[in-house]
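Annotated sample (chain length 579).
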Amino acid sequence: MIPMPDELRSQQWFARTDEMGIRHRSVLGTLGFDMGRIAGRPVIGICNPRSELNNCELGFREISEAVRRGVTEAGGIALEFPTMALGADLLKPSDLLYRNLVAMDVEETIRGYPLDGVVLLCNCDKTTPAQLMAAASADIPAIQMSGGPRAAGYWRNEPIATGTDFWKYWDEYRTGKLSDQEWRQFESCIACTSGACNEMGTASTMVSMSEALGMMPAGTCGLPANDSRRLAASEAAGRQIVQLVRDDVRPSAILTANAFENAIRVLMAIGGSTNAVIHLIAIAGRRRIDLPLSLFDDLSRQTPTLANLKPSGQYLMVDMHRAGGLPAVMQRISDDLHKDCATVSGATTGQIIERAHCYDDDVIRPVDRAILDSGSLVVLKGNLVPSGAVLKVSASDPSLHDHTGPAYIFDDYHCMLAQLDDDDLPVTPEHVLILRNIGPCGLPGMPEWGSIPLPGKLYKQGVRDMVRISDGRMSGTSYGTVILHAAPEAAVGGPLAIVRSGDMIRLSVEKRRLDLLIDQSELHRRLADFSPPPPKHLRGYPRLFVDHVLQADRGCDMDFLRPESTDALTFVHPVVGRS
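Output written by the structure step:
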């Protein structure tokens, strides 16, 4: 058994000699533990959000058991606990709405129970950042372990990217280019196994971010969901969390400003999801680390896009793993990374990079053959988005990066859906489509509706991209010249609220500008006349969210969850007395 620190947190519960100590130890006795052998053994929580409501994380039963084996082998006691499932496909209106709720759930479970360390099982889009937010706040030893991307189904002899190819062929189907029979055949190929979306969508991006930050074991984020090596890695994570408890290695030692800079550079190199911008800001905010949007843009200008993965390229996550995984990507940009950052693997970022090797230069491109010479994301400012907006240039049409055109406004999602396939819709390829009132407060929850489908009549004419703007998000699997996270959002009086159909909009990616071309006096007059809509939710968690959520440029966390001082970083432990 590994020797433990003198002050294990769990011993406040189990080492007591009074009647409460007996009660606490008896709980473990009912689980089959020998109460005489509990003393000095670290208690490790296994956070398992497995649910049949979320196919992304169905494989966690086996992964949890593998972690348990590792914890037991290292001399610890493993106790599993559940959290709400954040299934991006089924949870409506938006899984982002509940990211903060799960972060609170995990943090308070850690706070209230006798846990010395925790292994956080994650996979789906918002589970990963929710757990990292909780770990950053709770600050007890923690490791994340992902469930991996699902295997690809094949259609017409081509591997299917779960989301990217879905959006592509949905447009083909809704405009009559695919028959009902062909669509049903395609539909059966989208999700042939459990696991995360298998391209560089938000799920794969966020587990990559966890590994880049140092919170996930090196080289594991891209292991396929159905690969037995994932179980072996999970068992090793169970052993490693006991070691981290022994060495008292906490997230505060890993989630540093330099680690976040590394993660941002990796985000740009892998062509990651726009959603990662919101999540990284939120996670860093829990440690009082400021990540302004300008930092993302500065690092993007310096970092080439190297991962040739859909939706920016042509391959899937399994290909990145076989090519050397995330460490191989990091090795390609190693000159720009902080190499002394600590990780849960026990090695520094630099030591992990030294051991990496790339086995396929077409999947993970060398710098001189980059997909883009700069990063995949850019940040836009201007009078239309004074607090910023984000565009994924690696998945957009370069011919639209300098574009001026008239706005066409959709005030809500259902209005948009009702009009899109109308052959009389008064839009041309030069129009700028705007969908508003889908921001953090607007719906609420900022759903992934920002990737406005191309109008049916234009798609039939061969148009495959248009400039689109919203105060919402889009799936990390989506593509196109789609400007997202417009801040402040329309529902709180951001300039997006006062745009009228026919107003001219100018986009300049080179200048990082997005502007509404009206006189400043007219802009101020319209803003002064704006009245916010009444709240849709009068009670419950959605009301709490709307009353306290921060805007997209500040990570959409709740204001009361971000520490306001250094003292507020200290995790307040419960008084372990009579209950």
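Annotation: The longest strand covers residues 402-410.
Annotation: Residues 228-247 form the longest helix (20 residues).
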